[in-house]
Design a protein that fits this description.
The chain has 160 residues and is α/β, with parallel strands linked by helices. The protein has seven helices and five strands.
């Protein structure tokens, strides 16, 4: 059976940081790649958007309220779709099996649920944008709850 790597990243424009490493590792191991893009539920509803929507609702402008509440969600979906397509194309070019999911929620729970539904994952690789965000992901808690090997990637800092 072919190995499968799980690349977990926080959704957004910089979600591709670390993916080139995962791609090279997949080539070396002759493994497939699954991408799990995680958004916090808080990213889906910023305070400003909620307050603006409430103001429009109070004024009776329900349509504008709905647009505000769904605008950020649409933007997140478009960014996620664009990045997933880029990941898919890179894997296709490298002849690597690819799958993906985009989920909102607490990162550790989202990863646990993913692994429960897809037990064929052999290794988890956490992108730099996720592993460096202590508010979004507690690595120690993750190690207690997930038994798969976990690799955390950090962004390289250039020195002058």
């Amino acid at each position: 059976m072919k190995e499968k790597l799980l690349f977990v990243t926080k959704g957004g424009e910089d979600c591709d940081k670390g993916f080139s490493y995962v791609l090279e590792l997949a080539k070396a191991l002759n493994a497939g790649v699954a991408v799990l893009m995680v958004y916090s539920k808080r990213a889906m509803e910023t305070f400003e958007d909620v307050m603006a929507a409430a103001a429009f609702a109070e004024a009776g402008d329900i349509e504008t309220m709905r647009e505000l509440m769904h605008g950020q969600e649409k933007e997140i979906e478009q960014t996620a779709e664009k990045k997933i397509n880029e990941f898919s194309e890179k894997c296709r070019d490298a002849n690597i099996d690819f799958s993906s999911e985009v989920k909102a929620g607490e990162a550790i729970q989202v990863i646990k649920d993913f692994l429960k539904n897809k037990p064929g994952i052999d290794m988890i690789l956490l992108s730099p944008n996720l592993s460096s965000d202590k508010k979004l992901l507690d690595i120690r808690k993750m190690l207690k709850n997930i038994t798969k090997p976990i690799v955390t990637m950090m962004a390289a800092k250039a020195e002058a």
